[in-house]
Design brief:
Helix 2 links the parallel strand 2 and strand 3. The chain is α/β, with parallel strands linked by helices. The protein folds into two domains: 196 residues, 3-Layer(aba) Sandwich (Rossmann fold), CATH 3.40.50; 94 residues, UDP-galactose 4-epimerase, domain 1 (Alpha-Beta Complex), CATH 3.90.25. The chain binds 2-amino-3-ketobutyric acid (AKB). 2-amino-3-ketobutyric acid binds next to loops.
């Protein structure tokens, strides 16, 4: 059977870029973008698009059957900061959407699933640096609890029903093409926009808050690589640790100042500080490197150069 892909949550930060990449790789008509809301013009015009509620099992099933979908990328989720404001909504969205696609695969209606997890599965009792693949996991956020629970279900569906579900624990993702929404790592995108617009940024995290981060191109590469890996090479069926960069607001500021020497930052920590403090600072991703050849490419300074160059024209 030929590959036909459905992306749920295609209008979001990762979904937009993932759709563009997969369309260029497999052909536009083979990649169906879907979201509860329309996306940017390029996404809407570059191939098929369906309005789809990730919580509606029948609607997902209808799209899957109509388009003869083989692979689903479930990118719809409520992120950490918003989830603290709407706990039940976050739980319902993050869990129901996952069960829907797991059950479609269990019933042989689709062949393969990508489901993103997050560094948020770790909590305050987890070792903070070089956090291992297997370690103490006591997440203290609504989002982290939903992602950790999701990981357990992914592994369960693989073990009990042979569902081919693959997953990565994304760090904070940084892109000039799309904006994040409702995350704790969002400052690392916003700071580039504000640097160009106002030459100044007021940061909602403290100067020394080091978090795992990654440039979007690396994250898309990881997502595609894990999905293309041989089934026999995937040994972790909850979710793989994935590392790229680790930096704090002070360090990203210094990187920006290499291009904009007058750029300044002030700190006004809000409720997101507590979320960030519960997460690791750096991640050990040995298993992803060993099992399916993961390798990150873009450094902090390279990313800063790319971000400022590409955002310049907007301001
Ligand atoms: C968030 O900040 O909530 C996300 C994540 C780390 O999963 N970017």
């Amino acid at each position: 059977m030929k590959k036909r892909i459905l992306i749920i949550g295609a209008s979001g930060q990762i979904g937009t870029e993932l759709t563009a990449y997969l369309r260029s790789k497999h052909g536009s008509h083979k990649v169906i973008a879907s979201d509860i809301k329309e996306g940017n013009q390029e996404l809407m015009e570059s191939g098929p698009f369906e309005i789809l509620d990730a919580m509606d099992y029948n609607a997902i099933q209808d799209v899957v059957i109509r388009h003869e979908i083989t692979d689903v990328y479930l990118m719809a989720a409520m992120l950490s900061a918003t989830a603290e404001k709407f706990p039940m909504k976050a739980w319902n969205l993050n869990m129901n959407s996952l069960f829907h696609v797991l059950n479609l695969a269990k019933d042989n209606k689709i062949e393969k699933i990508f489901w993103p997890s997050s560094i948020a599965v770790f909590g305050p009792t987890t070792p903070k640096t070089n956090t291992p693949q297997r370690t103490i996991m006591e997440p203290s956020t609504v989002y982290g609890i939903s992602k950790q629970t999701g990981e357990r279900w992914c592994e369960y569906y693989f073990n009990k029903y042979g569902v081919d579900v693959r997953s990565i624990r994304y760090p904070g993702l940084i892109s000039y093409k799309t904006m994040p929404g409702g995350g704790t790592t969002d400052y690392a995108v916003d700071i580039y926009h504000k640097a160009l617009k106002h030459n100044k940024y007021i940061c909602f995290l403290n100067a020394e808050t080091t978090l795992p981060m990654m440039f979007m191109d690396d994250a898309i590469q990881a997502t595609v690589n894990i999905m293309e890996a041989d089934e026999s090479d995937i040994h972790v069926r909850n979710s793989y640790n994935l590392a790229g960069l680790s930096f704090n607001p002070e360090e990203i500021t210094a990187s920006i100042q290499k291009h904009l020497p007058d750029f300044s930052i002030e700190y006004e920590a809000d409720f997101r500080q507590e979320i960030a403090d519960s997460w690791p600072q750096s991640i050990d991703d040995t298993e992803a490197r060993k099992d399916w050849g993961w390798e990150h490419k873009v450094s902090l300074d390279e990313m800063t150069g790319i971000m400022l160059k590409n955002l310049k024209d907007q301001y």
